[in-house]
Amino acid sequence: MSLELEWPWIWVLLPLPLLVYWLAPAVQRPLQSGIQLPHQQQVVASAPIRLRPRWGRLAPLLLVWLLLLLASSRPVGVGEAIPMPTLARDLMLAIDLSGSMQTRDMQVAGQPVDRLSAVKRVMQPFIARREGDRLGLILFGSQAYLQSPLSFDRKSISILLDETQIAMAGRETSIGDAIGLAVKRLRDRPASSRVLILVTDGANTAGEISPLQAAQLAQREKVRIYTIGVGADEMIQPGIFGSSFGARRVNPSSDLDEKGLTEIAELTGGHYFRARNPEQLEQIYRQLDTLEPVAQEAQRVRPHRSLFHLPLGAAMGLVLLLWLGRLIGQLGQRLPQQERMP
């Protein structure tokens, strides 16, 4: 820690006591003498007495003056520079839990998994990378509800996402309500940091507000929306009794409203992504890291601690000691005089 003075110009007052001494009129003390001389008053008036400074007594007073000047110049202790993060982003995640998310058209390690499991697997590393951002979690099905408000606690967000189950919010899809809820939660945050990532595999089939109306509301509130449509373009549907007899290729994402998701993203300044497998989904989240980079260290600050109370307290303590010393001295002079009195 180093010492700095915020008002160093105060020290121009340092010679003020000397100026007062030299410029103030001399003190005229009445001569105390038992013999009265003729014209005594005229002699005294023509020869004023200038008291000579007694440096032994003045030294403590000068020290008090120096301490008062030091306190008035506002000394501060400046600590070592510490990094300050830039403005963090407020990133809301909206995850579709409708019944169609149980479609097993995703492949993880060569094994078919449902869409929600693939989303969880890819989103967990994304959450871990968002250090310095506030994350929130919205789950939606037939209804949309807030599972976690915006928070720096990425670990809790990760646990809550991992605990989600398909259809726990209903089997339908309320995209508009999810966007509206996100806008409500983000509108009080700084305008430059409001971001919503919406993951779905279908089209809006429930809710009180349409996705386009919700997107217009998000546009007014300056919320950028990145929409992600998940689901493969084709899969083999087993035949009779699960055999290949009668099996056929189908498009499991025929209900995905890509046009609507694209309109939502373009209207709010975001982007629409299409994820047909977990690898593409991972690439999308990597792109989101680029489009919405994590807050970086941009500046360093040095903490300041005010120290004016230290010299001020020392000056007051020294004045108190001088006063006590003078009081004790006066008492010491009176006691011998009282002892000599009959």
Describe this structure in words.
Keywords: Membrane, Transmembrane, Transmembrane helix. The chain crosses the membrane at residues 6-24, 307-325. It comes from Aestuariirhabdus litorea. The protein is an alpha/beta fold. It has a domain at 88-289: von Willebrand factor, type A domain (Rossmann fold, 3-Layer(aba) Sandwich). The protein is 40% helix and 21% strand. The chain has helices at residues 16-23, 40-46, 55-72, 115-129, 154-162, 175-186, 211-220, 258-268, 278-291, 309-340; strands spanning 2-5, 75-78, 82-85, 90-96, 106-108, 111-113, 134-140, 144-151, 194-200, 224-230, 235-237, 248-250, 272-275, 297-301, 304-306. The strands form 5 sheets. Strands 8-7-4-9-10-13 form a 6-stranded mixed beta sheet, with helices on both faces. A 3-stranded antiparallel beta sheet has the order 1-2-15. A hairpin with a 2-residue loop joins strand 5 and strand 6. Helix 3 packs antiparallel against helix 10 (309-340) and helix 4 (115-129) packs parallel to helix 9. The longest helix has 32 residues, at 309-340. The radius of gyration is 41 Å and the shape is rod-shaped.
